[in-house]
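Supplementary Methods, section 5.1.

A reviewer requested that the exact input to the structure prediction be made available. We therefore reproduce it here, unchanged from the version used in the analyses.
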Amino acid sequence: MVHQVERNKLSQLNKRLDHAAKSLERMCTFHKSGVMIDCSLSDLYDDIFEIGTSLKEIQNNDHFDLKEIEVLAARQRDLLAKFESLSEDFNRQPKGTILVSRKTIPDFFYKITGRHRKMWRLFEYISAASGLAIILFALISITYYTAYGGLPFIQMASAASPLVQGFGFIFGLIIGLIVHEFAHAIVLANNGIKIKEVGAMAGSMVGGFIEADEDTFFQSDQAVHLRFNASSIGTNALLALVLIIVAAVIKSDLIMYLALGNLFFGIINSLPVRPLDGGWVYEDIAKIYLKNNILKQTFLSLRYIVVILWLILFSYSAITFH
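The structure derived from this sequence is encoded token-by-token as follows.
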């Protein structure tokens, strides 16, 4: 009977360590992708610390297997070290001024998706498809730029005054950020994933963020992850297309540069490397469609070959120019 009680306690501690390890891995993933995790850090620390306390309490009990306890204690110390590294990295990041909504804005997204769920689901699929398209567009555009030193659609819009160019491009970046985070939140709300925070920061870094509940997010289907990551850059692509058409029709340089600013924001986030959205999309595609590990690793390695190609083309164009 005593032996069974020992086994149960050690089994429970082992499960708690497994859960803490998964939570820590999820937080690292969120942190690398640029979303805020400060709300969850204290909870995870409490879990890891309590496990350590429980292990210390039973270490002096002769009824327990000391070797097994030491194995669990080593795991707990390793998790604590990783947590402290993540926490230090998070605290080193400049925060500046942060505006956060934990209820009003998240509730707004649940409200609008609850009324027209089919419409927003259609939005998910269209924007996700556009996200795949802008990743391809980004790869082609950057390859062209490194080879020839310019892009035709930027050269055609270069006749505008510097004031129009600067104001339009910067305001376009801001619009791009807003619609980008809007798309992230729509996918979360439309798939029943809890939104912890929606916010913006201003300081040495300027940007917006969406913090999703880790448990509900990672329990969702991989296809939802793909739509979550692709819809944001896809929305940037769709908005850019609309603005470019409007600018061409009414011949407005300002709107054209709004489109370019928004498009630039989307292209930068489309690069197939983490923590950018394009990197997560690239890996989501591999997880969903490639079951063979060799094919999957080959596919994941192709993006680095593209980067090497860019360096070669850039070096060649620089040498040729001189």
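The CA atoms of residues 286 and 293 lie 10 Å apart. These observations are discussed further in the main text.
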